[in-house]
Amino acid sequence: METLQAYFENKGALIQQALRSLMEEMSEVPDRLRESMSYSLLAGGKRLRPLLVLATSEALGGDEKQALPFACAVEMIHTYSLIHDDLPAMDNDDYRRGRLTNHKVFGDAMAILAGDALLTKAFGIMASAAKEAGMSADSALSLIEEASIRAGAEGMVGGQVKDILGENQQLTLEELQSIHRSKTGDLLTLSVRMGALVANAQPDQLSALTKYAERLGLAFQIQDDILDIVGDKDKLGKPVGSDEEKHKSTYPALLGLEESRRWVKRLAAEAKELVLHEGIWAERLIQIADFLVTREQ
């Protein structure tokens, strides 16, 4: 079995090529809009969400070709959210993944429209991919409905709103967890569930994988909070210390740095335990959970 780093590199290259092909197929899109969309979508990054789609499908013996378009769709949703998060009206960030943010290159209006276009395209890709995979109408509609909930007002977007409203306030741990289950966790959970559903997961498998993803999402966010304090700006590709500057409640602020690190380890351990049963080939998913505990970017 290849190392996790090799897996990330190989699958990352596969995802990158698939995303590039999707952009090249959009010949009727205005050039400036397609350039703005591609600028952020093809900028690299960890590709954790699409990798989770592929790794989960693989863990259940699914077809990678059928899972790949769904992986691309979830990365489009994630990229749209980053473009909008970076805008002056939101986080007002100048750098993302080591280079200027979208609005700094293309302007605010084009960045907004590029995000809108990526989000909309993602749902079209899911619909086409479900048809190609031979999914039943009920299964396809349920998957797309779930994507709209987890990416929308009840999920990621709602979490972002709660995060904005929580600035300059001392949130409780429960309130902070509620924000991050939606803002960060819902899209990670969608990624895992998408890979499972495309691979025809059994109910017990889907339940275990969902709980795995929920713990993974919280561990990921706590590690993000930790890296905003102790991370290396060059490795992260963005400035550190922004949470404190914006007076945001974080896990280290509420729990302390060492206790936050213990939480990450505990959540990762729980996530790994959940996928050791139910006929899931879990080795890759376990490696990804371990990666989240030690990652530096």
UniProtKB/TrEMBL annotation:
Cofactors (names): Mg(2+)
Gene Ontology biological process terms in this record: terpenoid biosynthetic process
Domain of life: Bacteria
UniProt keywords, alphabetically: Isoprene biosynthesis, Magnesium, Metal-binding, Transferase
GO cellular component, one term: cytoplasm
InterPro entries reported in the protein's UniProt record: Isoprenoid_synthase_dom_sf (IPR008949), Polyprenyl_synt (IPR000092), Polyprenyl_synt_CS (IPR033749), Prenyl_diphosphate_synthase (IPR053378)
Catalytic reaction(s) noted: isopentenyl diphosphate + (2E)-geranyl diphosphate = (2E,6E)-farnesyl diphosphate + diphosphate
Documented EC number(s): 2.5.1.10
CDD domains found in the cross-reference section: Trans_IPPS_HT
GO molecular function: (2E,6E)-farnesyl diphosphate synthase activity; metal ion binding
rRNA-binding found in the keyword field: no
Family affiliation: Belongs to the FPP/GGPP synthase family.
Name of the protein this chain belongs to: Farnesyl diphosphate synthase
